[in-house]
Amino acid sequence: MANPEHLEILMQGVKVWNQWREQNNDTEPDLSSVNLSGVALSYANFSDTNLSNANLHGANLAFAILSYANLKQANLHGACLIYAKLNDADLFKADIVAADLSYANLCAAEFQDADLHHSNLSFSQVLDAGFNRAIITGACIESWQIGHTTDLDDIECKYIFRKWNIEKDQFESRLPVAPNNNFAPGEFTQRFQIIESALETIDITFTEGIDWKAFFQSFMELRAKYQDDDITIQGINCNRQVFVISLGASVEADRAAIEASAKELYERNIKQLERQVENYAKLVEAEKVEKSTLVEIVKTMAESQGSKYDLRGSKFGGGFAAEGGYQEGGQFNDYSIQISVNIDEITKLIQSLKAAIKTFPKEQQADIEIEIEELQADLADEQKRDPKRLGKRIRSLWLAACAIAVGIAGVTDFSNNVLELSEKLNVPIPVELIQQNPHILFGG
Known about the structure:
By secondary structure, this protein is mostly helical. Helix content is 38%, strand content 8%. It contains twelve helices and seven strands.
């Protein structure tokens, strides 16, 4: 139980308490099991104080000094500990649910088996802190200062928040993102435990967004160039359009040279991709002119011969004229003729799309299959066979490819087939859409 004399001094106010602590700095106060629920204790000096089993529910401990304090099984539920000093404090099995520990010094503090459900750990210092078997589900860890000596073994965490909206006083940016998803056992530790090799990273900053195709190509070239330096990706951080990619390397590595090479390789690959996109735009324009010329030739022939020629079923460039390509009075649907010229190749491309999506995640296959079936239905229906409608279908397929993670085996084949199909249907995908995700055309 608490020392009655010590409790009486504290009840006279923080100022009196702190003065007494200064005059009796060799004394280790005993406030164990006291009830200080909701009490204003900001700036109080509780260093080396025994507060085990104390009830500090909702107490204001902002800026308080709790260094080396014994807080075993203390109730800190909803307490305010902003900027508090809890370094080397013992919080074994403490109830710290929904407590505000933002900006607090928690270095070397012991949180073994403590419950920190929905606590605010934003900007706190947790170097050397021990969270073995602690519960931090729903906590906010924005910019907490973690180190390789922070113990996250056997931590219980279903989800966390990465942002603290100070104005609204609410947590944001849940991880995992989906509200019904949770971390698998041990996943939080795997994601956030910092290892020794991560302490000295090479940080590459991209201030205007990042082209992932160019980056990964550059990264592979960088690894090949410095193959003895064991270059790895240690972390990727993003704040709006600013990306910071942290690279790890061996102790002996020339970090300055690696940083310079990484930037140089990235810029070179960016320019190469830009040239590829520019060449594609020129190719689309050239094929558009070529097809337009062919349509005009066929149309002129039909008009000059009157109704002498019925071209339904005739072949153009290896394809068959689509049903409905001929209309009464000898007039042709120009766009139907364009489709008929390439109908065999269009059919093959659609079959290739169907084959490619079999490698996609199952949850995405069904939606893309529906898009392909609707495209086929539009091609088969004369009234729906128009460039605006088909162009919309093609763009939907392209965006579906962009939404699939890089590395899925069939994405590159699928996107290239969509691109070729857009050319055969004469409904080019806008160049700006390609520039946003050029990597899906070239693999990576």
